[in-house]
Specification:
Number of strands: 10
Oligomer: single chain
Radius of gyration: 18 Å
Strand content: 15-25%
Distance between the termini: 28 Å
Shape: globular
Largest sheet: 4 strands, parallel
């Protein structure tokens, strides 16, 4: 989400602005990778055998049950290989508190937010998550991914990959920039501590005015649609002509809620990123 020029999405995001990963936590501190969820459990057995495969790497845990209903219609004939950066980390019993402390953002760092396998959310810092992402990408490639999509619209440094690795941030940003022109844009993000950083990064790219509001896509199910609608309505009332749901956690149902509340066009990060990834897989097949 950070450049004013087109980004080559087959390569990692420019690391000159990326968070220093020299403090990254050694992944050997996590649970034995033999405990990671077997990729066979995360691949839809209904996918065509031998078809092109797209790796979906979440910065949380796989599988992303919330993503598949929106992604699969956009990926006909594509086998999905899901892996998570936190697949080997424990969030049960006495281990949970220690795991959350290990993964937490540093003081003053804008957090990353993702989903655990059980539907709960987790706040993450870049230092701890980047080496885990590298491991998840390698697992996806071993499972046959022709290309891999990183399911997060945050900014990341370089990640090692042998095949095309797509970062959702530049895919989403460049598509939005092409669509909105100079119009004012409202950005919805998951966490209050992200709002300032999100506004700054989008303002670096878009020529029009940028505003931000918060709605947690991983919040209580009975409230999340209302929260997204309220954020969208507020942005529209403050003058935004377009809205962007800027997190992979926002769903098509949430887009519909935002559209109805704001009566403005709503761009959905997950849909943009998955559509672009489908093109790369088709080109690689």
């Amino acid at each position: 989400m950070d450049t004013t020029k087109a980004v080559d999405t087959t390569k990692a995001v420019d690391t000159t602005k990326a968070v220093d990963t020299t403090k990254a936590v050694d992944t050997t501190e996590t649970a034995d990778t033999a405990e990671i969820v077997d990729a066979a459990e995360t691949v839809d057995r209904g996918d065509p055998a031998g078809g092109p495969a797209l790796g979906l790497v979440t910065i949380g845990q796989a599988p992303r049950a919330d993503l598949r209903p929106d992604a699969e219609p956009l990926l006909p004939g594509v086998r999905l290989v899901e892996h998570g950066a936190l697949d080997a980390d424990r969030f049960d019993g006495d281990a949970e508190a220690a795991t959350r402390r290990l993964l937490a953002p540093e003081h003053g760092e804008a957090p990353l937010v993702s989903r655990l396998r059980d539907g709960r959310s987790v706040l993450l810092g870049h230092g701890a998550i980047v080496p885990r992402i590298t491991d998840a990408v390698a697992r996806a490639e071993r499972d046959g991914a022709a290309a891999t999509l990183l399911l997060c619209t945050g900014r990341f440094p370089a990640v090692r990959a042998r095949r095309p690795l797509l970062f959702a941030e530049p895919l989403v940003q460049q598509a939005v920039a092409a669509a909105v022109g100079t119009d004012p844009v409202g950005i919805v993000c998951p966490h209050p501590d992200q709002a300032e950083d999100v506004s700054r990064r989008w303002a670096e790219l878009l020529p029009g005015r940028v505003d931000a509001a918060v709605a947690d896509p991983y919040g209580p199910a009975e409230r999340v649609l209302d929260d997204v609608a309220a954020a969208a309505r507020g942005l529209a009332e403050r003058g935004s002509s377009w809205l962007v749901l800027d997190c992979i956690g926002y769903t098509e149902r949430m887009r519909t809620a935002a559209l109805r509340a704001a009566d403005r066009p709503v761009l959905l990060a997950r849909a943009i990123a998955v559509r672009m990834a489908a093109e790369v897989v088709a080109a690689s097949a």
